[in-house]
Amino acid sequence: YDYFQNPQYVTISVFAKNVIRDRVEHRFTAETAFLEFPLPSGSSFSLDLDLCHPIIPEESRLTVFSTKVELSLKKREPIHWARLERADAYMGGMTPSSTAATSATTATTTTTATATTDATATATATATATTPSESAPAVAPAPAPAAPAPVPAPAPVADPKHLYPSSKGNKDWDQLARSLDSEIAEDKKNLSGDESLNNLFRTIYKDADEDTRRAMIKSFTESGGTVLSTNWSEVGKKRVKPSPPQGMESRRWEK
Fold it and tell me: Residue 4 forms beta bridges with which residues?
């Protein structure tokens, strides 16, 4: 799956063909989104997200296309999401800030311990050097070691224009949005006229029982394609006569 966003919505696209709308399960809460549906192969797809920012469940929606399933999540605030899920969803409950604080504390403790050890060794050497002796003159104490220089923080890197992070790296979402609009328009175009009617007949036939299928095949074949009936109790008793549209007549084809 993939996702893109604008100031109002975060849209998640799951690319799967011929998904049945009535068999898709989804749930929205203020902080989570859930999606599950069976695939034509017999397996199932499941997506359970702990979202990075809160949404408005009542204004979020599910849309099923012929080539994909989309979740449109309504943002509670019109801000840019740096990621889709919360950081602790990837780090087992530890946020980046707590990890950085732990690392900084460990580094500080190590530096302090090293400086203390160096200072102890210097003091021991100084005490030994300053002890009166007949063969060696007094030596001045060595200066204390200098504190380590602070490490500068890395400069923030601004996101390039129109490029936003996603689960697959930076993408030009303007181009992707145009492609999706073209795909939706193509779906609508392909479902116009006779093709739309044929799709309806195929759906009825696919979901029908054996008697309904026999009735559809018998009526369509015997009538020369002018009658399509689903009533087997009526069609099974007699031959189906052609019923051409008004203004046309039916003729038997001869070799």
Answer: 11
115 and 108 in contact (C-beta within 8 Å)?
no
Residues of the chain with pLDDT > 90, as a percent, come to: 29
Q: What is the pLDDT of residues 20-45, one digit of tens each?
A: 989 999 999 999 999 999 998 889 99
pLDDT on residue 205: 79
- The rounded distance, in Å, linking the Cα atoms of 36 and 47 is 6
Buried b (16+ CB within 10 A) or exposed e, 7-31: eebbbbbbebeebeeeebeeebeee
Indicate if the alpha-carbon torsion angle 133, 137, 138, 144 is positive or negative. Answer: negative
**CA distances (Å), origin 175, targets 4, 123, 162, 179, 189:** 11, 68, 10, 6, 21
> How many degrees, rounded to 5, is the angle at CA 102 between CA 155 and CA 149?
50
Q: What's phi and psi for 7, nearest 5 deg?
A: -60, -20
Around 164, how many Cα atoms within 13 Å sit in the side-chain half-sphere?
Answer: 20
Among 154, 23, 168, 7, residue whose Cα is nearest residue 78: 7
Beta bridge partners of 99: none
3-state secondary structure of 5: strand
In the chain, % helix, strand, coil (3-state, to 5) comes to 35, 20, 45
Mean predicted lDDT score pLDDT of the chain: 73
Q: How confident is the model at residue 46 (pLDDT cuts 50, 70, 90)?
A: very high
Model confidence at 99: pLDDT above 60:
no
| DSSP states along 115-145 | HHHHHHHHHHHHHHHTS--SSS---PPPPPP
